[in-house]
Amino acid sequence: MELAGFTEEQLTVRDAISAITYKFPNTYWQECDQNERDPKEFHAALAKDGWLGIALPEQLGGAGLGISEATMMMQTITQSGAGMAGAQAIHANVYATQPLAKFGTKEQLEETIPKIINGTWRTCFGVTEPNTGLETLKLKTTATKNASGDSYSVTGQKIWITCAQVASKMILLARTTPVEEVKRSTHGLSMFCIGLDRDKPGLDMRKIKKMGGRAVDANEVFFDNYQIPANTLVGEENEGFRIILHGMNAERCLLAGEALGLGYAALERATQYANDRVVFGRPIGQNQGIAHPLADAYMKLEAAKLATYHAARLYDTSRTDSSIPFHSVGVACNSAKYLAAEAAFTACERAVLTHGGMGYAMEYDVERYLRECFVPRIAPVSREMILNYVSEKVLQLPRSY
């Protein structure tokens, strides 16, 4: 990857994270992937040096840096060979805490944030549901305040909740006003920062067997009158959708960075193999049929890199510069996520094909990268929904759904 143009802070982050990831070689990630084992040692190493708080306030133990630096951190992790599994092991700790840090009470922040940063608590993000999908405003999981007013009762189901098996806290989005009673569609949802007490009644988790990123668990989470204290509510009741949006654009930047790192890692493996593999008396990389697709993949990654760090910079600047419209940030972050995911897919696919039959072997890692590169194409929002967003919000075309 071309490093010209990055800030001193971003390059410092890259060097520091690289020093940590160096201790976790590809064999570590192969073993975690094949045995579906949580990379707790990796999480602990990042927590030990304070990196889980990279974009959280200094007064709470964070580094006080921006999403630009956090994006570089996530890219460096995936590019090291850790892939999406390495990124997903800490992903929610970085972005899901953003709305909490902005809207949480003093007591919530002082109790929760330092323990997330030092690794005592791990976090997951509970939004997606099986019967609503991308229709976030139609979420059905309810949080009903009990008669005493000191607790809520949560009932419903969440799906694709990463790291729920090892998390102590969940940032939960649940309905506090029935959808048929709200005055506007964005009203009626509330955000909570809840504890996941597996010994309490009303909580059940079931792992989902999946294609890639097997080192980190993905889950269905079931709530059945699960009791949570009223003081777990973050911000105002019924304003959770507005609050959760504060973390959505940040997440798109992080996913874009993760996709870039995965693509660059795959491309590095492919070019190394293309130089080393000799057929008919010459390295296969000498053949334009090999060289040109890899060169094309590199340029796609570089273009997506520019879009990604432009979006992250815009996001960071908008927090102190009111002249930058929220709309502009959303367009940039969604575009970056789309372009980086597509560039990563191209690089990972071509890396496997460059290896030929050996691309199918686990020891060469590129098959793992290919399995994992579908994550940024699908989550947290699909390619098609980003195209819908740009069509409607930028090009002013009629809404299609």
Summarize this structure as a short list of keywords or feature phrases.
single chain; 401 residues; alpha+beta; AcylCoA_DH/ox_N_sf; Acyl-CoA dehydrogenase fadE12; oxidoreductase; FAD
Proportion of strand residues: 5-15%
Widest beta sheet: strand line-up: 1-4-5-8
Count, helices: 13
Topology, number of strands: 10
Largest sheet: 4 strands, mixed
Backbone structural class: alpha+beta
Mean pLDDT: 96
**Low-confidence runs:** none
Instruction: Report how far apart the termini are.
Output: 39 Å
Q: Which percent bin holds the helix content?
A: 40-55%
Cα-atom radius of gyration: 21 Å
> Globular, elongated, flat, extended or rod-shaped: what is the shape?
globular
* Run of helices and strands: HHHHHHHEEEEEEEEHEEHHHHH
Topology:
Layout: H1 8-21, H2 26-35, H3 40-48, H4 67-88, H5 91-95, H6 97-103, H7 106-117, E1 123-126, E2 142-145, E3 151-162, E4 169-175, E5 189-195, E6 203-207, E7 218-229, E8 233-234, H8 240-276, E9 278-279, E10 282-283, H9 288-318, H10 326-355, H11 366-372, H12 374-378, H13 383-393
Parallel strand pairs: 1-4
Antiparallel strand pairs: 2-3, 3-7, 4-5, 5-8, 6-7, 9-10
Family: Belongs to the acyl-CoA dehydrogenase family.
Pfam families: Acyl-CoA_dh_1, Acyl-CoA_dh_M, Acyl-CoA_dh_N
Protein name: Acyl-CoA dehydrogenase fadE12
